[in-house]
Amino acid sequence: MRFPNTKKQPAHCKGRLKAAFQQNFQTILGILSMETRKTVRLILRPWALTDAEAVYEQARNPKIGAMCGWHPHASVSESREIIEHILHKPHSFAICLEDNQAIGSIGLLFQDDSNLPLSDHEAEIGYWLGEVFWGKGYTTEAVQSIVAYAFEELSLVRLWAGAYQKNIPSQRVLEKCGFYPHHTEERFFSKPTGETHRAVIYVLEKA
Known about the structure:
With 207 residues, the protein is of the alpha+beta class. It is 36% helix and 26% strand. An 8-stranded mixed sheet has the order 1-2-3-4-5-6-8-7, with helices on both faces.
């Protein structure tokens, strides 16, 4: 028979546990409060672990990771872990067509997650789309929706975005959505790969 551990925990341990619980609780509340967004052709919704196979189908393509700063997904299990630990959080949306199957990702990064020196009421927008869906205007449609979400619902005043200098299509998307080049980072760091790239940093101010 096992008896409960009645040994008192040190105050600093209790403080860490309380902080972790509060952070997780706020994350869950943030995800639950997210509403699905619909555009003319797209559904932007919170992520689910059941999206793993659809994500792997697109994210295993090395062309996508090379443009976004992460390695190709090696398995469905890896895609599931990335959804659970990276994508499944507030202000992060799966890009879907009418069949509700994920074909890409779009979301906002704030001070604790972004490589850019963000201030309060600012965020970085990031996105990717499966290669078979390129050239159809889907990314532009998704970015326009998240820009409206950031400015109108979150009351942000400024959005930033980074695009590798060689990623001309992404730069065109940003410019179509009203972003303009702010400066160039010679050594823009990618956390997933540990690599640095020359990147154009874009900005969009709330009107």
